[in-house]
Amino acid sequence: MSTSRRPLAFRLAVLAILVGLSAACVSREDSSGAKEAPATVPLSDLAGLTLQVGDQKGGTESLLRAAGALDGLPYKIAFSTFTSGPPQIEAATAGKIDFAITGNTPPIFGAASNAKVKVVSAYDGSGRGDRILVHTDSPIRAVADLRGKRIAVGKGSSAHGNVLAQLNRAGLSPSDVTLVFLQPADALGAFTQRQVDAWAIWDPYTAQAEADIPVRSIAEATGVTNGAGFGVASDEALADPKRNTALGDLLVRYAKAVRWAKDNPDDWARDYAAAVGLDPEVAAASQARSLRLPTALSGELVGSEQELADLFAESKQIASAPKFDDWVDRRYSDALNPLLINR
Prior knowledge:
Shape: globular
Strand order of the largest sheet: 7-6-8-5-9
Structural class: alpha/beta
Number of helices: 13
Strand content: 15-25%
Order of helices and strands: HEHEHEHEEEHEHEHEEHHHHEHH
Largest sheet: 5 strands, mixed
Helix content: 25-40%
């Protein structure tokens, strides 16, 4: 059976496999104080180092490999696959991984729980693939129609942030709906069986659902949230001279890989599809709108994250709003600034 003909549930289940890691509880020890970056070491000193990198749906690893960015790597990388961003934050706090790229909401949940991580890079994901889907025959036409309805969404994911912001914009709150917290594969089942009325989801799951199920979008994150992604590193890794050096090198390699993907969209879509088991047209649709382009970790972007954190607190989705800037470390900005890409 070809990949394009496999049932959507099978493909999403494959995409959502959590490889070899148990979720660890986020520590509540305070870690928000700024710390001085250790001195870097020569790359030649990193031969015995293995950097532990979290990944979702193979996106980070497949992009680096497709672009040739792992060629001549002076250290090793072990990639671990996660279903979504929040478990990556937990794993970094627990010392299981050194780095991962997440959406805009997982770092807020991490900061609210005093996670031992810092945001070290930012990416413009556009928000166009972060959508709220309903069945094409649903009477729901707009976010305001969600009052009293059930919405499947991953807790602490970018989709959670999108739902919250969309409800607020429509004059609703989480108490006006029922949020059903499910990971993508389970959410798909609940949605297709009509156990929920809507599904808040992100790419490539969005693109896959749009290709395989009669759905329509009633809202997307663009213009409502910042649509950003963030590179998140563990405090432990940032304090270690060798891992700190390797992280700086990896971030530069990743930024260059994104440039390659943007300049070679057909090659990238083909390689991404093969790496994660997507239909090439689905991969192309996903990456055309949701490729994460390196952007500045600016005060404006951090301010928009603070607004989202405040909204989570006001709606009682988290106990209190953290000062998000306390979880931002700009030590790599000088190296990354020449590599920023405009959408």
